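Below is a filled-in request sheet from our internal design queue. Each sheet records the structural input a requester submitted and the sequence that came back. We keep these sheets so that new team members can see what a complete request looks like end to end.

REQUESTER: design group, bay 2
PRIORITY: normal
MODE: inverse folding
CHAIN LENGTH: 287
BACKBONE (tokenized):
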């Protein structure tokens, strides 16, 4: 599962482009348990391991998603299937969704199940996100200057700051390469546990005419192992201000938490997933 900084629908590609550090070829066996001596080489090993794990992970999940965008707090139940992902809103701004709105939400689910073009659009969006994530992933070791801040056996904490010799090849990577912060790695598994960063300077596009992201914006993600060898982002906190037309809208703040992960069988169909969301089966499983 690729690490990303994606919110549930809508601004997925925008947030990914802003800070989508998504991770993961170089052997990592040399770092199996010893503290890293070369921080950048260690990061390369972590990146390679993450990419390999992502390529081999075909699991799908059912989970609870709480998106705390100010004034738009939404709680959803999400089910991933081989045909696409379905979600149902169960709370908005701390209140259960009224029956009339629940009906509209279920009608949207039915439309997605029946409309191949909607499913294709979702698939295209996911593939586009993955391509951007992969491109940024490959830049991770070289875009920053890395140093080991702490190594306690279970985890390794690294600091990163922009490498002045790195020349971002894309607009997205210009934002990516303007960050500094810390990364916590599970040393034994070489998996990212936490990533925190701050925008070190204003980032202008077209001399500010096409947009500007303000210095001081922050992001933080936390990841957990939800099954042996399978890691997922369980918390995303984004507070980056500004507006850039190439990213659509990325000025809104986001505090998103996912939890209650349960595996879904590969044979689960979209129709079955919709039924689980409608009849309360999913709700009971995610309590």
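RETURNED SEQUENCE:
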């Amino acid at each position: 599962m690729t690490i990303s900084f994606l919110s549930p629908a809508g601004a997925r590609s925008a947030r990914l482009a802003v800070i989508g550090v998504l991770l993961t070829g170089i052997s990592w066996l040399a770092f199996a348990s010893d503290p890293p001596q070369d921080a950048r080489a260690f990061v390369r090993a972590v990146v390679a391991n993450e990419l390999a794990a992502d390529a081999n992970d075909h699991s799908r999940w059912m989970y609870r998603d709480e998106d705390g965008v100010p004034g738009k707090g939404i709680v959803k139940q999400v089910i991933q299937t081989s045909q696409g992902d379905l979600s149902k809103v169960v709370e908005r701004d701390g209140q259960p969704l009224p029956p009339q709105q629940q009906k509209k939400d279920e009608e949207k689910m039915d439309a997605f199940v029946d409309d191949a073009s909607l499913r294709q659009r979702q698939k295209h969006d996911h593939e586009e996100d993955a391509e951007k994530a992969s491109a940024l992933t490959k830049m991770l070791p070289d875009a920053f200057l890395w140093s080991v801040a702490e190594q306690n056996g279970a985890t390794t904490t690294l600091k990163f700051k922009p490498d002045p010799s790195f020349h971002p090849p894309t607009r997205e990577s210009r934002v990516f390469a303007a960050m500094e912060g810390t990364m916590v790695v599970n040393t034994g598994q070489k998996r990212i546990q936490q990533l925190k960063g701050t925008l070190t300077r204003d980032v202008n596009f077209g001399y500010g005419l096409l947009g500007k992201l303000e210095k001081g914006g922050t992001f933080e993600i936390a990841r957990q192992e939800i099954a042996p060898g399978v890691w997922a982002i369980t918390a995303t906190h984004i507070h980056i201000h500004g507006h850039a037309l190439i990213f659509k809208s990325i000025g809104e703040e986001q505090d998103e938490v996912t939890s209650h992960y349960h595996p879904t069988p590969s044979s689960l169909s979209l129709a079955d997933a919709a039924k689980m969301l409608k009849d309360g089966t999913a709700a009971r499983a995610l309590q």
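SHEET NOTES:
- The longest strand covers residues 218-227.
- Residues 243 and 250 are 6 Å apart (CA to CA).
FILED BY: M.R.
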